[in-house]
Amino acid sequence: MEKINPWYIGGFVEGEGSFGIIISKHKTKKLGLDARLSFEIELRGDDRRILEEIRSYLGCGNIYELKYDRYGWMPHAKYSIRRLSDIRDKLVPFFKKYPLRGKKKKDFALFCKALEEVFEKKRHLTLEGIERLREIRRFMNKRRPFGK
Predict the structure, then answer these.
(1) pLDDT in tens, 76-102
(2) Residue 84 near residue 109 (C-beta atoms within 8 A)
């Protein structure tokens, strides 16, 4: 099988991918909160092969089957990278080498800011760090004002 073109991956992520900061309640954490970075691509299940090729190229992450029977939708597949070392050592270098060009470029920049300012310094284990993540997250994805 021919290896997937890295520029195709970038274009695909522009349309179907998302960079996120997840902050959730967690009973066993000292602060009662857990913070993580997340990169995901979700597609209909019949396009799972594309996710497998992307995963193979990047060499990390997991693919999950999603069932949406209650909505009457076809099954989906989700490719997800959440391990901090994979984000730092594989995902970020990939998008620095093959930069995004559309609106996801801004989300990626904020994602990197969260990684560098908060996670790399372990500030996500403090309330101040969690608050900084919330500030950064306010401008990501659909939360960003149109055109900014």
Answers:
(1) 899 999 999 999 999 999 999 999 999
(2) no
Q: Are 74 and 96 in contact (CB under 8 A)?
A: no
CA distance linking residue 38 with residue 51, whole number of Å: 16
Q: In what order do the strands lie in the sheet with 76-81?
A: 17-25, 33-44, 76-81, 62-66
Taking alpha carbons only, the member of 87, 111, 98 closest to residue 18 is: 111
* Count, residues in the chain: 148
Residue 32 has φ and ψ, to the nearest 5°, of 80, 10
Token pair recorded at residue 32 = 């009662």
Q: What is the pTM of this model?
A: 0.87
6-26 per-position pLDDT tens digit: 999 999 999 999 999 998 777
**Confidence at 132, pLDDT banded by 50, 70, 90:** very high
DSSP category for residue 130: H
Q: Which domains does the chain have, with CATH numbers?
A: 6-140 (3.10.28.10)
